[in-house]
Every structure is written in structure tokens, then in C-alpha cells.
């Protein structure tokens, strides 16, 4: 075990979470309003923060026989929920009570109990271009002479918010943008910033928010699958400004289940011949993904999971010929209550076939909101931790994403349980505690 003195010395290098933490959200729709209303409900004692690892998770320290497993929020110096202040941008106008009513996630009585608080938050006009999200029409949008001007307007909004808060993080909860591949404008910060002035079509609105946040030294997380901060130019800016970044696309429903089941098949060396996934979704996200260009962005994010978990190059007999299909169907009557249906064709001893069918009737924003909260709290922690903030990419937060970001040349880890171990071991590491390997030989020696 680490000595108490060593643990104290490591932990002492982390700046304390004093003052107010400002959470800035581009896209204040279903996920954002569910997050904000939920945090307020927890602060008032109306509800428990179920689904939040940072609030309800525990972390084992030392041996199993030591019986020492504090709450994560009591172990690492993360911000207190009472110290969080919210702001953000949206393209539809109205306050957050209006937005939450439109989203239709939370029950009327619950919303009414927090109505004054939600009405007190009115999003700022957003940066929007219909070229990148075909199915939406902006009603309250910023106007500028070019993308550089728009990005600097976001920086001005951030500067104003900085006068009211002590630290800030930004998390994209906006709609999925069209599929973009990396081009020359994404390769260096210098070329990217020239592209802002020249209105380069490879620079989407989400990239403007990411650039503005990182320029201000603010951590940035992406809850959608669009190409945003996962480009060399913004990775360069992240490191230059010591502003942490991480992966993209909240791992909520169907992909969450995949990252549980696929490792189980691989661990048992059971083969998979096919995995068919379809989703029925009726909220604004479903409407946006009804556009083929936005769907492709989501499809690429969802399809990558199995290949990285199964490693078909290492196990060609088991996973070398998988037929993997993903579909999303917009079905308005479902609203935010999504249905994820999977048919999995597996095979076992002597090649005999079997099937597994999963029907997950889930609530999209209910699953996403605690992930967004954790990401904001942990990104803020990373920004205050000398051993983490200079890394740029926070791979230890892979747990929260369909598409984790990694250093160039390093494949992402998708196995949920390995991701969980990576997250908790990172917290032990920054606090000067021994890592947990689960070897367990110490219980059986002389």
C-alpha cells in the first residue's frame, strides 16, 4: 500500500474545487434540460442522483479484507452539486422550462415543482448552419461576417460567464451534425484558424464552440458523434491551453448493452456471425437522425464498437465474418422513450448456432443526463490535476462514450468493464493510492 504521506502529497497537488463551477451547454434540449432539472431536484432533496458514478459510485481502496470503499465524491475533490451554475446556447428560444416541456422527458408535476428555477435560465442565441443539421431550422441564431466572427462571439459569451463563475467546462448536447471526414483544414491549429476566417466548409458549428472553449482554457466534452474536437488542430490547442478533451457520443442505450454483451462473448470464446441492431426513437434526436447525412455520423460511431472489442484479426474463426447492421427509425409517438432491439447470432462448441434477443425499452435522456454530469465534474477535476490536464485527451473517461478518443496510433478500449477499471485506477493514481489489479495472491500466501 502507498503510505498515507505519499497519498497526501499526490492529492495535495490537485487544486481544490473552490467557488462556482460553470457548466456551459451548446444545445439546451432534452438531455440538457433533464440534466439541469435533475441536478436541481437532487440539490433540493427531491430525488437521488441515480446513474451518476461520481455521486453514487464507490471506489475500493486497499485489500478486499480492508473493507474500505468510500464514495467517489468523498475520495476525490470534485465540485459539489450546490456549487454548479448552468448556462448555454440554443437555437429555438424560450427559457429552460419551455424547453423541458417541449422535450417531454420529465413529468408535469416534477417540472412544475422546479418551474421558477428553470424559467430563470434562458439560453443565449446559438451558432447554427442548416447545412450541418438538415432537419432543424434555427429561430434564435447568431449572425456574423464569417466563422471566426461567430466563434469570437461565443468567446465573448464565455468571458461574460467567467465573471460569474470560478471555473468552467463545456459539454456539447446539441444535435448530430452531418458526417465529415478530416481534411487539410483540420490538420494544424494555424490552418484551422485561417479556415475560420475563410469560412471553410470543413469547420462545423460544434467545432466553433470547441475552439472557443479551448481558447479560453476550458475543458470540452462532446455528447454527439460529430467530428468536433477529435482533430489534430484542436488536440494541438487542447495541449497548448492545458484544457482537457475526451471522446464523443454518450454511451447510453443500445451501445451500452453492446459493450456489456460483446466482452462476455469474447471472454467465453463464443463466436458471433451476425448482430442486427435497430432503434425506434421519436424525439428531436430521432428527427435529426432521419436525415441520411446525420445518420451516417451516428452509424459510424455505433459500428466501431464491436470491431474493437472482438479484435477479428486476432480471432478470425470467431469474429472474422460478422454481419453487423445498425438502423435508427424515427417514430414520433415514442418521444424520448427509445426502443433498442438487438438480434445476435452466436455459435459455440463444434459451431452449433444460438441466438440472443434484447429489447431495451429505455429513456434516452434519463440515461444520458448522469453521464453528462459525471463528465463535467471529472473534466473539471482533470483541469485541476497537474498529471492530467497537460495530457489533452482524457482516455480514462472512455467509459462514457460510444467513440472514445485516444492518442494517435492507439486503438480505443470499448469493453465497459475495462473502461470502469481504467477510470477508477486513474482516480486512485492521482490520489496516490495503489492501483487495483484483482490479482489477489496476497490472500493465499504464507
Automatic annotation (TrEMBL):
GO BP terms: inositol biosynthetic process; phospholipid biosynthetic process
Pfam family, one: NAD_binding_5
Limits of the Myo-inositol-1-phosphate synthase GAPDH-like domain: 253-365
Cited InterPro entries: Myo-inos-1-P_Synthase (IPR002587), Myo-inos-1-P_Synthase_GAPDH (IPR013021), NAD(P)-bd_dom_sf (IPR036291)
Entry GO MF terms: inositol-3-phosphate synthase activity
Alphabetized PANTHER family for the sequence: MYO-INOSITOL-1 PHOSPHATE SYNTHASE
Family: Belongs to the myo-inositol 1-phosphate synthase family.
Name of the protein this chain belongs to: Myo-inositol-1-phosphate synthase
